[in-house]
UniProtKB/TrEMBL annotation:
Gene3D superfamilies: Cytochrome P450. It comes from Streptomyces cyaneochromogenes. Keywords: Heme, Iron, Metal-binding, Monooxygenase, Oxidoreductase. PANTHER family: CYTOCHROME P450 YJIB-RELATED, P450, PUTATIVE (EUROFUNG)-RELATED. Pfam families: p450. This is Cytochrome P450.
Amino acid sequence: MTVQEPETTAAEATLPEPVPLMGCPYKSNPYPLYERMREAGPVHPVLFPSGVRAWLVTGYDSAHAALNDDRLGKNHDRGNDRWRARASIMPEPQHSRLQVHLLHQDPPTHTDMRRFVTDAFTPRRVEQLRPRFQELADSLVDALPAAGPADLVSGFAARFPCQVLAEVIGLPGELAARFDRDWGKVVQPVGPTDPGRPLYEARLHGLESYIAEVVAHKREHGDDDLLSRLVAARDRGELSRAEVDSMIFQLLVAGQEPVTNQITTALIALFRHPDQLARLRDDPGLLPRAVEELLRYDSAFELTTWRFFDQDSDLHGTEVPAGDSVIVSLCAANRDPRRFSDPDTLDLDRSPNPHLAFGHGIHFCPGAALARAELQIALGTLLTRLPGLHLAIRDEDIEWIPAVLGRGTNHLPVGYDRVL
């Protein structure tokens, strides 16, 4: 008779130091690791594939506090030499021209820059545009094959956010059609010695040329839209060239790829819970609350971008050196059992649902209302117009993107009976 060793609990398991955040098992399901980290403490040293080391905040209360901690700044100038040696991967002059957007600014500069974009994304304006967004979603579904299989990323999830964003910010249709989704990959770390570096730099140059074309078009054909207002502010000297180019860069990348990824993570969650999928399909009135739960359950923004202390500081009992990067795990916070009952259960009736999928504090996502509307429209349209919608590959064959900060998949093969 063999005597079995008792199973090791999450709290007892020893974590490596630093904790590597990489590899297929981690990207396909990071939640068991996040559970171990939460149980062991709120702050942990971690290692990313690029070699960057950081301090990861995991629990809900500690994450909420870090997102509102005015000691933690976002400006890259705060980073120390250890961080800069690995993390400042975007070469000059592109780094200086494209990395001074809202996510990398602190007050008062952040406050001044943010006021230029908030009016475009107000809940009231989003609701006014909702019928147009529905038209866009229906047109994309109309173009899908009459019966499955189909790839819902290339056929819908990667195109819908681009078309919506163009409507919201005033990107002309001909320019929107030429936006290359691969340009969004410039936010994924590719070190100077990586074999993929030439392709990375080619994407970077292509995106920068595209932004210059957008600016030139808006200067010649200005209108009452966000892009035109940004270019006009630059011409008046209220914003620098780098600030405008960076803000357009942020709009084009952060305004599309996370929504694409969130559509895929939401669909995968529903495929894994067919009873919930059927319930949502049969009762569209559940969509607003369901979207909040899907955002909590598996957020496309897995981790925040860098934050830095300007002096050695205590972070929830851990001494963090000045200029080291501090990153908040939004996904780990959103599965914290101390804040959410049965956090690993997809509960479409969960209320209240104070998830952190859009961050918190002064850097709360300005496009949150738009993203919520896009997700409601996307899921509602796909579930009602594609009867029998199901995953057309094995769950274990889903290829999760290797992005450091985000979750999603570049391909989502599905089957369905017909297009209604």
